[in-house]
Amino acid sequence: MTELLNKDGVRVTLGGDGDTVATVTLDNPAKRNAQTAATWRALTEAGRLLPGSVRVAVLRAEGKSFSAGLDLGVITPEGIPGMPSFHELARYPEAQLDDAIAEYQEAFTWWRRNDIVSLAAVHGHAIGAGFQLALACDLRVCADDVQFAMRETSLGLVPDLTGTRPLVELVGYARALEICATGRFVRAEEAERVGLANLVVPRAELDAAVGDLTAALLAAPRDAVVETKALLRGAVTRSYDEQRAAERAAQGRRLRDLAGVGE
Ligand SMILES: CC(C)(COP(=O)([O-])OP(=O)(O)OC[C@H]1O[C@@H](n2cnc3c(N)ncnc32)[C@H](O)[C@@H]1OP(=O)(O)O)[C@@H](O)C(=O)NCCC(=O)NCCSC(=O)/C=C/C[N+](C)(C)C
């Protein structure tokens, strides 16, 4: 196990045969893994540090909660060190505010990269930015104590850390609106039923279940998984005919690769 990063409540290790698995751990359990700009910078750095050998990125958390979301110190008048308070953000010129939020969002985007499959192991509370971080991953394996909630709207804000699209894709518009507008908890049984969770297991079995799924993902040929992920991701935005064409093109690349025939 090699440690790649350990700062601001984010620890990244490499493991697996040939460093194929990166494990990103939220490691500020005393504060329920509440997130700040420093957390997001560290998560962005984690994505940049991953070597090309990595095929599966696991996101997990220490302590009682996966993440209690935004550090609520940010909404106090005094704020927290190293992060503009809401009071300050509200006074930014529009372009500067756009840049600031875009930078925060970088922590949430790289999990979608086609060269990795990202897998969130979610237990306890996943609230606001915590819920959005779980949504940033391709797959979610949840413990039976999981409690998702999108609290931004209840605080007078909107979810702006890339979570709205995957939420709508996973559960549909009407349920996504209801979950966001009410800020209510979505517990394990519902999460599995509506498609938020790929799998729900007893809390004590979460790590083993993540290990089993990781092994199953690694068992498939790498390039086929990369092409399949790209195909499925693109299916949301392509027309039916465009998607058929994308399938043909991808299959051509796979066949030529398998047969050792050059492009
Ligand atoms: C239900 C929660 C998560 C856990 O309850 P608990 O009883 O297990 O733990 P407790 O409340 O005693 O908390 C333990 C310590 O952790 C500190 N804590 C917890 N959450 C936060 C937080 N979000 N920010 C800062 N600190 C937090 C808590 O103060 C305790 O510290 P001490 O031991 O007293 O020193 C419960 O904690 C809870 O409901 N937390 C708040 C959840 C929440 O509302 N989060 C905000 C969601 S909105 C969001 O994330 C928005 C993001 C988008 N955007 C970027 C636009 C702002």
TrEMBL record:
Principal EC category: lyase
Any one Gene Ontology molecular-function term assigned to this protein's record: lyase activity
Database matches in SUPFAM superfamilies: ClpP/crotonase
Positions in coiled-coil regions: none
UniProt EC number: 4.2.1.149
Family annotation (InterPro entries): ClpP/crotonase-like_dom_sf, Ech1-like, Enoyl-CoA_hyd/isom_CS, Enoyl-CoA_hydra/iso
Entry keywords, A to Z: Lyase
Family statement: Belongs to the enoyl-CoA hydratase/isomerase family.
Name of the molecule in the record: Carnitinyl-CoA dehydratase
Organism expressing this protein natively: Streptomyces smaragdinus
